[in-house]
Design a protein that fits this description.
Length: about 170
């Protein structure tokens, strides 16, 4: 892939950050993480963040992505990318910047998400997500529709094969 935009989509604890790092190394690309932007702002999604604050984080991410794309850098956006209008916004940004767009859906079932969150509570590798926040997130998550042409992977192990086939 020449300079372009890859947007990840998936629930919390689906493995998006792991996939983002693998893609960034393979392409090469720079990862823009909305969680990292929130942390710089003193916010943590696992505690629950008001919608207007998420909107501001999304605007900051778009500005970072546009700056990187304008310098010819490929970008991987690490975020849940739900609801759909966020994915549509990233797609429009790529079109406006004249770069290739690819949506990667990291698809795992809710039982796996909860098991990973529970393991993280025993041996933390990342910050926690409160039960009520995770429940709401899982209930409201909008997976990509068939018309979005998302590359679907269940793990980083599936990524290499799926990426080659889906390009």
């Amino acid at each position: 892939m020449t300079a372009g935009l890859v947007v990840l989509c998936g629930t919390s604890f689906s493995g998006k950050s792991t996939v983002a790092r693998a893609l960034a190394e393979q392409l090469p690309a720079v990862v823009v993480s909305l969680d990292e932007i929130n942390e710089r702002r003193g916010l943590w999604g696992g505690d629950g963040i008001p919608v207007e604050e998420w909107g501001r984080t999304y605007q900051l991410a778009q500005a970072e992505v546009l700056e990187l794309l304008s310098s010819g850098t490929t970008v991987v956006v690490d975020d849940t990318s739900s609801p759909r209008f966020l994915r549509d916004g990233w797609r429009a940004l790529a079109v406006g910047a004249g770069v290739e767009f690819r949506l990667v859906y990291v698809e795992v079932d809710q039982a796996m998400v909860r098991a990973r969150r529970d393991r993280n509570r025993v041996a933390p590798r990342r910050r926690d997500v409160a039960d009520d926040v995770l429940d709401q997130h899982l209930a409201e998550f909008e997976p990509p529709g068939d018309d979005e042409d998302a590359l679907r992977v269940g793990s980083v192990e599936e990524l290499g094969r799926a990426w080659r086939l889906g390009r």
